[in-house]
């Protein structure tokens, strides 16, 4: 029997990460990571931390864009996957109804609740959104689909057509016909489109991931009412916000909504095996699978694979048994309060806001003349350069991983693990305090780095 020694392979090639990617994968991405100081070679993840090849810990406050809500390599999920391998469970028979996918569908239906008791499994959030849109179109027999400006729903063509953002769409040709958007938080604009009578679905992120935008209190309930009035399906994209991220199992529960379709992914995987799904009503589900010869009219090879189903089942168990949803709400509340306590000290800091473990930190133009001039110089080159300075300094000086949420906004985004402790919360807040203090010295190393970023940005444009 052939052998494959993973440990030896990793040990013999560790540290070659970026050279391999530059040669065989996305070399532009490598260039960006090296420019901003994110070219670290991580070899291990555990809980709230990543570890580099020298054993240094990095506090992970991005969690794979929200994948690792329960922490990295949670032992319960890892053991469940090992058990499935040891059991040699049957997998992807295709012409078969597997037990594990049925069990996960049952558990998801319980948590989404209400009239939604039909599930379709896939591999990612964008695939879940694509499926939701297909089912909405066939159910309503209408051609158009609407999203909100500023939303992000994925980068495959259907989802990209709903992600109405020039940064993502530019250069890829025409988008899918019939897909469009309405202004954010604008009920009048929404009704003007819905009353035309040809809109199959309106898809929303209850909390928009780019910028962590939360609508006015009555917007989502009234938007749902308008959809009901005009026969349009209401879809909640819970790919990032679902399964505890906002301090409730699903973000739509903050507003007492009753969506027709809910899409999920990210946290459902436990960070081990990709898995996505959309959950809808039996009536909508059967619109696609309407006759015997259409029983697999919408399908995906790997969507119900056994390891993904096990990861999902184990993750839902962890969310329940370890009170992860409640912990997410508490962690986010503490972070926002402690960050906002820094505002009197730092004129760059406008404040923190968020919901559960989905937090945005807003920066603002300072009042003092020298700082204002430096701020404007960075903004002329790239709107997000100041925020990138803060992100890079948090990484270099404090080994904390964060991200620029949007290249048009002065917003730093954090998606901490739900398991973050008071010690880790304080470590982040103290690090932010220190970095913002450094930003107060416009001749210091932080601003020198900012000027390097500015020059790099100019050279790339040239």
Describe this entry's structure for a reader.
The structure is a single chain. The chain has 462 residues and is an alpha/beta fold. It folds into two domains: 75-321, Aspartate Aminotransferase, domain 2; 324-461, Aspartate Aminotransferase, domain 1, CATH 3.90.1150.10. 44% of the residues lie in helices and 15% in strands. It has 18 helices and 15 strands. The protein has helices at residues 6-13, 17-24, 27-35, 63-66, 75-87, 99-112, 125-140, 157-162, 166-169, 187-194, 219-229, 282-288, 306-321, 324-340, 369-381, 385-398, 422-439, 445-461; strands at residues 42-46, 49-52, 57-60, 116-122, 144-148, 179-182, 199-204, 233-237, 261-264, 276-281, 349-354, 359-363, 400-401, 403-404, 411-414. The protein has a seven-stranded mixed β-sheet, with helices on both faces. Strands 1-2-3-13 form a four-stranded mixed β-sheet. β7 (199-204), α11 and β8 (233-237) form a beta-alpha-beta unit. α5 packs antiparallel against α13 (306-321) and α15 packs parallel to α18. The protein is globular, with a radius of gyration of 23 Å. The termini are far apart.
List the helices and strands and how they pair.
Layout: H1 6-13, H2 17-24, H3 27-35, E1 42-46, E2 49-52, E3 57-60, H4 63-66, H5 75-87, H6 99-112, E4 116-122, H7 125-140, E5 144-148, H8 157-162, H9 166-169, E6 179-182, H10 187-194, E7 199-204, H11 219-229, E8 233-237, E9 261-264, E10 276-281, H12 282-288, H13 306-321, H14 324-340, E11 349-354, E12 359-363, H15 369-381, H16 385-398, E13 400-401, E14 403-404, E15 411-414, H17 422-439, H18 445-461
Parallel strand pairs: 3-13, 5-6, 5-7, 7-8, 8-9
Antiparallel strand pairs: 1-2, 2-3, 4-10, 9-10, 11-12, 12-15, 14-15
Helix pairs in contact: 2-3, 5-13, 6-13, 7-12, 10-11, 14-17, 15-18, 16-17, 16-18
């Amino acid at each position: 029997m052939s052998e494959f020694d993973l440990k030896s392979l990793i040990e013999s090639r560790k540290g070659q990460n970026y050279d391999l990617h530059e040669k065989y994968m996305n070399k532009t991405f490598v260039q960006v990571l090296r420019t901003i100081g994110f070219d670290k070679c991580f070899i291990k993840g555990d809980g709230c931390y990543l570890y580099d090849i020298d054993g240094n810990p990095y506090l992970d406050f991005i969690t794979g864009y929200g994948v690792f809500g329960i922490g990295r390599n949670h032992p319960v999920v890892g053991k469940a996957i090992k058990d499935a391998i040891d059991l040699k469970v049957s997998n992807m028979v295709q012409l078969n109804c597997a037990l594990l996918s049925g069990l996960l569908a049952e558990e998801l239906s319980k948590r989404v609740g209400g009239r939604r008791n039909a599930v379709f499994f896939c591999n990612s959030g964008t695939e879940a959104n694509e499926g939701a849109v297909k089912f909405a179109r066939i159910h309503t027999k209408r051609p158009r689909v609407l999203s909100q400006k500023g939303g992000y729903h994925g980068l495959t063509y259907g989802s990209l057509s709903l992600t109405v953002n020039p940064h993502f769409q530019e250069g890829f040709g025409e988008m899918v016909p019939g897909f469009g958007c309405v202004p954010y938080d604008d009920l009048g604009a929404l009704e003007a489109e819905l009353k035309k009578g040809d809109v199959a679905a309106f898809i929303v992120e209850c909390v928009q991931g780019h910028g962590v935008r939360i609508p006015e209190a009555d917007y989502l309930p009234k938007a749902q009412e308008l959809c009901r009035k005009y026969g349009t399906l209401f879809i909640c994209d819970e790919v990032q916000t679902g399964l505890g991220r906002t301090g409730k199992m699903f973000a739509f529960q903050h507003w007492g909504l009753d969506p027709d379709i809910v899409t999920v992914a990210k946290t459902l995987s436990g960070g081990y095996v990709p898995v996505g799904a959309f959950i809808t009503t039996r009536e909508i589900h059967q619109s696609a699978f309407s006759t015997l010869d259409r029983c697999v009219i919408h399908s995906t090879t790997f969507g119900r694979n056994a390891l993904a189903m096990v990861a999902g089942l184990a993750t839902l168990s962890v969310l329940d048994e370890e009170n992860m949803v409640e912990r997410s709400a508490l962690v986010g509340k503490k972070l926002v309060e402690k960050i906002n306590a820094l505002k009197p000290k730092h004129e760059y800091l406008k404040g923190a806001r968020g919901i559960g473990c989905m937090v945005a930190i807003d920066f603002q133009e300072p009042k003092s003349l020298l700082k204002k001039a430096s701020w404007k110089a960075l903004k002329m080159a790239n709107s997000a350069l100041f925020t990138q300075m803060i992100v890079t300094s948090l990484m270099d000086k404090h080994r904390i991983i964060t991200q620029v949420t949007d290249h048009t906004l002065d917003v730093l985004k954090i998606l901490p693990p739900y398991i973050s402790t008071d010690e880790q919360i304080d470590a982040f807040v103290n690090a932010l305090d220190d970095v913002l203090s450094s930003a107060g010295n416009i001749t210091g190393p932080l601003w020198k780095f900012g000027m390097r970023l500015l020059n790099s940005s100019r050279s790339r444009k040239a």
